[in-house]
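Sample A.
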Amino acid sequence: MSHTNIRPYKGMVPITGANNYIDNSAVLVGDITLAEDVSIWPLVAARGDVNTITIGMRTNVQDGSVLHVTRKSSHNPAGNPLIIGDDVTIGHKCMLHGCTLGNRILVGMGAIIMDGVVVEDDVFIGAGSLVPPNKRLESGFLYVGNPIKQVRPLKESESAFLKQSAINYVELKNDYLGEVN
């Protein structure tokens, strides 16, 4: 058994892309694929054991977040993989479970996104929000609450920030990579 933070499970080993930063305290297990320029920050736990996790380019997963999937079953033959698009910012202590996130999304600190949820592109999810199973969040809106509710269309400045947040984290992870090299 490996004692590193990137661990195999049943022969599946996480695949990391170019220029990734994975903090030494984060743990990635099993069928996980990271695109390039992804950053995985301290104490993240990502477990691709009973389904797959895919994380797109320039996405950042911040401290203490948990990423998991739903197993395949007779009532859900495909299960629920976790699919995260490009330029996504996942705030501190979020829980993402068997959901699909598009591109240019900000998931606020402490948010929980449950099985079967689909979040379209260009969405802000407020801190502490709960997205119940199988909900669809439409592109271009701010969502908040427990359970989550659509609040209003995104302002132009908020839409621009979605991409800028990802760029900021690419620059930060590059700084961290420079420290370890």
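Sample B, a different protein:
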Amino acid sequence: MNLVKQLWRVSPTVRSAFITNVYPVRQLSAVTINPLKPIQPLPPSNTEELDKLYKRVELEMRGIDPAVLLSYSWFCIAAASHLGIEVTKSWTLRKAEKERHTLLRCVHIYKKHRVQYEIRTYFRFIHIQRLTGSTCDTYLEYIERNLPEGCALKVTKIECQPLPDHITPPKEEQ
């Protein structure tokens, strides 16, 4: 090791040999640079698609664990407040929906020996008002990606639409 250090200090040829072996130097070739072309504006289109407007979006959450549903509803409300979305209502049903299944312990006989299983489904609801289509899509995609295990989400959108052409306003009498 000491011999390498001494040769390193003394001889520039040894130094260059180490440098080229460890860090190979690449020669740059001549590159021609083409000038940038100006961006052409898009031709004006007469069919501009307007963003949808939603009067209300209703979120219905179902799950088997009420604590998980409560936590997820807090998450949805916090995400809405960060996006500047107005949450008007958030509530839950008083009782869970119960579904009972009765089965025989033995398939062949003993009708009096039965076992009963119960599935409870808990609900939470959130109402959001006055949304644009792009904001609604962004918000719904975000909360759907963070949907916890054992929960389901049902979304109902109520869209604002203009009056049809065949409906005319009433004429004022003078």
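Observation for Sample B: Residues 63 and 150 are 6 Å apart (CA to CA).
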